[in-house]
Amino acid sequence: MPARKLHLVPLGGLGEFGMNCMAVRWGEDIMVIDAGLMFPESELLGVDIVVPDITYLLEHREKVRGIVLTHGHEDHIGGLPWILSELNVPVFGTEFTLALVENKLEEHDLLDDADLREIRAGTRFNLGPFTINPIQVTHSLVDCVALAIHTPLGVVIHTGDFKVDPTPTDNRLFDLHTFAEYGKEGSVLVLLQDSTNAERRGYTPSERAVRGRFDEIFARAERRIKVTIDLAREYRRKIALVGRSISESTEIALDLGYLDVPEGTLIHPGQIKEHAPQQVCVLISGTQGEPMSALSRAAVDNHKHAKIEPGDTVVLSSRIIPGNEKGIYRMIDHLFRREADVIYEDGSSPPVHVSGHASQEELKLVMNLVKPRYFIPIHGEYRQLRIHADLARSMHGAVGQVLMMESGDVLEFDELGARKIDKVPVGRVCIDSGSRSDVVEDLVIKDRRHLSEDGIVLPIIAINKLTGSVESIPEIVMRGFAAGAEDGFVHEARRLIANTLDGSTAEEKADYGVIKEKIRADLKRFIVKTTSRRPLIMPVILEI
Ligand SMILES: [Zn+2]
Ligand SMILES: [Zn+2]
């Protein structure tokens, strides 16, 4: 690569939802912005997470100076364990972001070897030839920054995820002034801006907008409620945290002082039953209908501590992520069956959930302030990138040239201009059960490898559609998988499935998504333990 050229290489997140990751290269130095994951779609059976292909970084491993994180959402940090295990470079993030990262690395036994460096909004730092200025932005999480990256060709501004929230819940304001200063200087070469909500007109409401609705919910709820902490305190309810992701992030927020909960307010989930329902608020994980999440399990009456009783109010304060509708509505159906009062995002106002991403007026505002020579939409599926690009094209006074890129494109800047010069390998890397040794390049290869090396196991369960009862002993069909003493293995596996079924409620058995996942998980654990192999396991439910 000749000198005096800047390359932008998105490795994920442009033209797809999630796994945001971008390389910025100047000569012999590369910095990486974010290292996110993508949650697998349901057809990726048995795959736990999906991360970006980092072949480009590995091919230039001696040039990679570090990874700079914009904020702590999974689609920005979730790929770190996998990336660091391949490429151990320093990781830069704000205090809250790094606390989330620490937890994640600890889980994967990577924390001891990690080089984590704290950054602060407004405090510049150097990384190779780059000087980076983190700029405070507002989003649906605390301690989020945009990055102004000073390069010899000009400043690259990467917004991270943001909305312009004039009344953020932590009172740390969106730093419009710094964006404006860069614009005034005329020093911005390129603006890379969050496209998630580019389809939405107007402004995204402040995080505080949910307060009105929540206040109303708290005021009229007669029994238990599952919602946020401030109001729980105001309404003098004890708070229980149920589910791993919610307890972990809340603990971090408490440790770092982002949340303030008076002594004695938090109770252990096991203590829920010791309090009257109208004195408790349960915060529970799993609003996307993930089959094994705490809320999904509570919805089918299979959670040890979180029991949902008639008259309880369940609030799903989240967006229904496209692709998850089926699972979410199935869970909502179960909650209705439990006679809960279910409140979810149905378009009514005031809202129970607000987006964390900028709508069109905010996007235009930042473009106006920054006045970039080039504009590139990032973080979005193709149509969102396209709509965002069109929006930028209409901003004649503020934005120079608008460019569209997708993951894998290499965009080159020099004194003469900008052009796409190359494609690098990108794609989805599927990781099974969070283990780094279980990486598979894509679904097809995964299936083939599974089938060729470890075979396939089909547990077949006959369930009576009317009664929900299991009609016969589960059958097991295996191909390409031999487990030593065959008879003994099959016998054990059948007994295990029967146990799983026995331990499930009628509602779980009626919900094939849930019951299949339970059987798959239990059987997988058993097979790995007894044979150290990982066949493809596909439970089949026969309705009779
Ligand atoms: Zn985010
Ligand atoms: Zn994001």
Give the gist of this structure.
This protein is an alpha/beta fold and 544 residues long. The protein contains 16 helices and 28 strands.
Low-confidence stretches: none
Mean pLDDT: 88
Helix- and strand-based class? alpha/beta
Number of strands: 28
| Adjacency order of strands in the biggest sheet | 7-6-5-3-2-1-21-22
Enumerate how many helices there are, as a single number.
Answer: 16
Q: Which ligands are bound?
A: zinc ion
- Hey, roughly how much beta strand do the residues contain? 15-25%
**Amount of helix:** 25-40%
Question: What is the overall silhouette?
Answer: globular
- Rg value: 25 Å
Protein model, in words:
By secondary structure, the chain is of the alpha/beta class. Helices cover 30% and strands 24% of the residues. The chain contains 16 helices and 28 strands. An 8-stranded mixed β-sheet has the order 7-6-5-3-2-1-21-22. The chain has a 7-stranded mixed β-sheet with strand order 8-9-10-11-12-19-20. Helix 4 (95-107) packs across helix 8, helix 5 crosses helix 11 (360-370) and helix 14 (486-502) runs antiparallel to helix 16 (512-531). The longest helix is centred in the last third of the chain and has 20 residues, at 512-531. It is globular, with a radius of gyration of 25 Å. The protein binds zinc ion (2 copies). One zinc ion (ZN) is lined by residues 20, 73, 75-76, 161, 379.
Q: In terms of topology, how is this protein built?
A:
Blueprint: E1 6-12, E2 21-26, E3 29-33, E4 49-52, H1 55-59, E5 64-68, H2 74-77, H3 80-86, E6 91-93, H4 95-107, E7 116-118, E8 125-127, E9 130-137, E10 144-151, E11 154-158, H5 176-185, E12 188-194, H6 210-220, E13 225-226, H7 229-234, E14 238-242, H8 244-255, E15 266-267, E16 280-284, H9 294-299, E17 313-316, H10 325-337, E18 341-344, H11 360-370, E19 374-378, H12 382-393, E20 401-402, E21 409-414, E22 417-423, E23 428-431, E24 439-440, H13 443-454, E25 456-463, E26 475-479, H14 486-502, H15 506-510, H16 512-531, E27 536-537, E28 540-543
Parallel strand pairs: 3-5, 5-6, 6-7, 11-12, 12-19, 13-17, 14-15, 14-16, 17-18, 19-20, 25-27, 25-28
Antiparallel strand pairs: 1-2, 1-21, 2-3, 4-23, 8-9, 9-10, 10-11, 21-22, 23-24, 25-26
Helix pairs in contact: 4-8, 5-11, 14-16
Bound molecules: zinc ion (2 copies).
Residues 71, 73, 139, 161, 356 line the site of one zinc ion (ZN).
